[in-house]
Prior knowledge:
This protein has helices at residues 2-36, 55-64, 74-81, 121-134, 160-168, 188-207, 226-231, 241-244, and strands at 45-49, 68-71, 90-93, 114-118, 138-144, 173-180, 213-219, 236-239.
Amino acid sequence: xxxxxxxxxxxxxxxxxxxxxxxxxxxxxxxxxxxxxxxxxxxxxxxxxxxxxxxxxxxxxxxxxxxxxxxxxxxxxxxxxxxxxxxxxxxxxxxxxxxxxxxxxxxxxxxxxxxxxxxxxxxxxxxxxxxxxxxxxxxxxxxxxxxxxxxxxxxxxxxxxxxxxxxxxxxxxxxxxxxxxxxxxxxxxxxxxxxxxxxxxxxxxxxxxxxxxxxxxxxxxxxxxxxxxxxxxxxxxxxxxxxxxxxxxx
Length: 250
Ligand SMILES: *Cc1c(COP(=O)(O)O)cnc(C)c1O
């Protein structure tokens, strides 16, 4: 029994050390990419994508300085919620969200500050309805399916203006930017094309002054491609495995 416990804490200590090392590297890479694109490192926000990661490990990342964390499943977020160090980090929802689950995230108990994956007026309307009922507010990003892939969340780029205009009229939410997960690409040039298209959309829509829209965040870039994403103008990267190690699905 003692043996098992000490092995477990050894494992946790090793994991904490790995996260610390990874975190430093990620911060360095972000800083370099920000500077390469004429920005200061502070202009880029690191969000830790925490699916499958145990609460102790997430809280260690927060202890190291991670200030934003994102879950992509409602059930998993609810399981971890009480144990998370919410005083020191902001919670985001980053996954596909069904309308009937919105009530777990906003409204009576506003568990997340931002929902990054809004891709329909119906979903936004439900966020709005619950928040109005309870006097709450949620920041939202509109998810763009920049590669126009079938079976992928997000709206096609050409639908962005209209959906933004529809959502911004809703009370209880605030449109704060755009989010995208580009297609898996054969080469860097192709990926760069998608990131650049997203940045263009972000700039274009930001230039239209609209009430209840502030294009603060362009959320794109994950473990395998965040350096390129930042070079192309991303100011929020969502990083999972590069920070926490390969995911272990139980
Ligand atoms: C898991 C996930 C990430 C992070 O993926 P990694 O490749 O592990 O960095 C980013 N965004 C979303 C929406 C995710 O679900």
